[in-house]
From TrEMBL:
Disulfide topology: C158-C168, C268-C305
A single MF term (Gene Ontology): chitin binding
Domain Glycoside hydrolase family 19 catalytic: 69-296
Protein name listed in UniProt: Chitinase family protein
Keywords: Chitin-binding, Disulfide bond, Plant defense, Signal
Signal peptide: 1-25
Pfam families: Glyco_hydro_19
Origin superkingdom: Eukaryota
Length: 322
């Protein structure tokens, strides 16, 4: 009895060790390394863009963020009452990220920083696509990715000011679609150009193709709105160094500033309003599910943008007499 147990354990140990070696061997044959002017560059195959980048030397997203974690974060998205049920999945997210991992999306800094960036990005996605409310089963934060488009658009979001650069296609409507909903012809036009997909004539692609919807969202996360401003990615991972003006405007690297960049005065500079707190809550909830302590996300001034001056005010109040 004792002997059989021991040999069983031994066999088990051998099997486990050989699996470990196999996985490692597999990994190392997959990573190709070269040095360019003293900088280590790696090629890890398709998930990191299929080319050499210094970011590809770090873990790739699927090394630390796996299917079950995606399922945990968005646990109610396929429930019968979820509007986009069946649409969003893990594979689409990883496939979409392959365009941006070589540029640092989810591959910048150490593993904690990498996981925090994914939680932050998905926190924005969650708070913009949720249909959770106070008494929803599983709690209001379990309902991210419930939508993939705006349900009752009040207009078609065609701005004629851009009729030369991004003319609206006859009959097309540019209401909110995607993982970080895209609105207006000029945004569809610019994102379509960047991703080499004709979104101006086919805005509906964003609600038909989850990979494309995630690509559009990650593109927005990675790209500054203006040249003089940081991207949400740069503001989050600490690539961005605030100017004196930024400091005076209470803009510091961290999650709060990503809300400022992506949503301006819809969320920021308005005090402790619900839509802002809702995004922070999604971020914190996802951090927790990924096993990262809330304190890692920093103090309130870093998390929030309640007191920040916005980068791009959407509306400047008239100063003339009323
Ligand atoms: C890769 O990870 C290490 C720590 O794990 C980090 O110091 C380094 O900055 C990362 N590389 C890049 C390009 O972010
Ligand atoms: C990871 O990086 C963050 C920020 O860059 C730092 O605060 C933290 O101490 C690092 N963690 C480890 C385990 O090195
Ligand atoms: C979805 O979009 C991706 C990225 O643009 C593209 O590679 C793929 O072919 C599209 N899928 C379909 C079914 O059109
Ligand atoms: C500083 O901020 C003010 C107000 O937001 C702006 O008008 C000014 O151009 C900024 N200066 C610089 C150097 O960015």
């Amino acid at each position: 009895m004792e002997v059989t147990q021991k040999s069983f354990l031994l066999i088990l140990a051998i099997v486990m060790v050989s699996q470990f070696l196999f996985v490692n061997g597999d990994e190392s044959t997959k990573t190709r390394v070269k040095y360019v002017k003293g900088t280590k560059m790696c090629d890890k195959g398709w998930e990191c863009g299929g080319g050499y980048s210094r970011y590809c030397c770090n873990l790739t997203i699927s090394d630390y963020f796996q299917t079950y974690q995606f399922e945990d974060l968005f646990s109610k998205r396929n429930s019968p009452v979820a509007h986009a049920n069946g649409f969003w999945d893990y594979h689409s997210f990883i496939t979409a990220s392959a365009l941006f991992q070589p540029k640092g999306f989810g591959t910048t800094g150490n593993k904690t920083m990498q996981m925090m960036e994914i939680a932050a990005f998905l926190g924005h996605v969650g708070c913009k696509t949720t249909c959770g409310y106070g008494v929803a089963t599983g709690g209001p934060l379990a309902w991210g990715l419930c939508y993939n488009h705006e349900m009752s658009p009040s207009q078609s979001y065609c701005d004629d000011f851009y009729k030369l650069t991004y003319p609206c296609s006859p009959g097309a409507e540019y209401y909110g679609r995607g993982a970080l909903p895209v609105y207006w012809n000029y945004n569809y036009g610019a994102i379509g150009e960047a991703l080499k997909v004709d979104l101006l004539n086919h805005p509906e692609y964003l609600e038909q193709n989850a990979t494309l919807a995630f690509q559009a969202a990650i593109f927005r996360w990675m790209k500054p709105m203006k040249k003089s401003q940081p991207s949400a990615h740069d503001a989050f991972v600490g690539n961005w160094k605030p100017t004196k003006n930024d400091t005076l405007s209470k803009r510091v690297p961290g999650f709060g500033t990503t809300m400022n960049i992506l949503y301006g005065d819809q969320l920021c500079g308005q005090g402790d309003i619900d839509p802002m707190n809702n995004c922070i809550s999604h971020y914190q909830y996802y951090l927790e599910l990924l096993g990262i302590a809330r304190e890692e996300a920093g103090p309130h001034e870093v998390l929030s943008c309640a007191e920040q001056v916005v980068f791009n005010p959407s509306y400047v109040a008239p100063t003339a007499a009323t």
